[in-house]
Design brief:
- By secondary structure, the protein is α/β, with parallel strands linked by helices.
- The chain is about 50% helix and about 10% strand.
- The chain has ten helices and seven strands.
- The protein has a four-stranded parallel beta sheet, with helices on both faces.
- Helix 1 links the parallel strand 1 and strand 2 (about 40).
Length: about 230
């Protein structure tokens, strides 16, 4: 089993889900008392959020890249970045390490294409919905990506930062999200990407009438598959 390096804590509300899902996946595959071999770097999210708000992506990239390298030096044989938004600095991380980096947008695109869909709604932070680093990566796989218009986009972003990363799961916010999804489906979306790992704490597949792509779960499953790739 390969050792997985996790860059987490962005926020810890979702990165602990990564740890749970990865460990459960390894136990399901190997049985008994098996669990994942993990090395974890968990950040103070307030420091990362400050860099996001300042738009200082260069500093954020340098920080995460240096720590990805430290994970590799400590024995990580693949690296997983446990957040959609911070994939904006994925190129810096990939340049700093020589072990595989599992890009979340690629994992998500594979899942969407696996269900033979071509048009999906993307919900996430404002950075993920508005910048090209994530949407563009999905589109490079041949997908058409729909994001909410304003004011829905602000609603999606604010619920993430004002509630979900703080551990608040509000039923009223869930209903607001579901109404936004309904409008995107009416606009042509065949499925919905939870493009922020915290969204999975609020909306589940059972809440929707179209395919749902929970990115943290998909990413965790891909990490397990990569770690166990050499198993018989």
């Amino acid at each position: 089993m390969k050792t997985i390096g996790l860059l987490g804590g962005m926020s810890w509300e979702s990165s602990i889900e990564y740890e749970r899902l990865i460990n459960e996946g390894v136990r399901a595959a190997r049985g008994g008392t098996s669990s994942a071999d993990l090395i974890i770097r968990s950040y103070d999210f307030a420091a990362i959020e400050a860099l996001q708000e300042a738009g200082d992506w260069d500093a954020a990239g340098q920080l995460l890249a240096a720590d990805a390298r430290r994970l590799q030096d400590a024995g990580a044989e693949l690296v997983v970045l446990c957040t959609n938004t911070m994939h904006v600095v994925a190129p810096a991380i990939e340049a700093a390490i020589s072990v595989p980096f599992l890009h979340l947008a690629d994992t998500t695109a594979d899942a969407v294409l696996g269900q033979r869909l071509d048009t999906v709604a993307l919900l996430g932070t404002r950075y993920t919905m508005e910048h090209d680093f994530y949407r563009g990566r999905l589109e490079a796989h041949g997908l058409t990506v729909l994001v909410p218009p304003e004011p829905d986009r602000t609603t999606v972003h604010d619920v993430i930062y004002d509630e979900l990363v703080r551990g608040v799961v509000n039923p009223d916010s869930k209903q607001r999200y579901l109404h936004i999804v309904d409008r995107l489906v009416a606009a042509g979306a065949q499925g919905v990407i939870a493009g922020c790992t915290e969204i999975e704490l609020l909306v589940t597949a059972e809440d929707l009438d179209v395919p749902y792509f929970p990115t943290a779960r998909l990413h965790a499953e891909a990490a397990v598959a990569a770690a166990l790739a050499d198993d018989d």
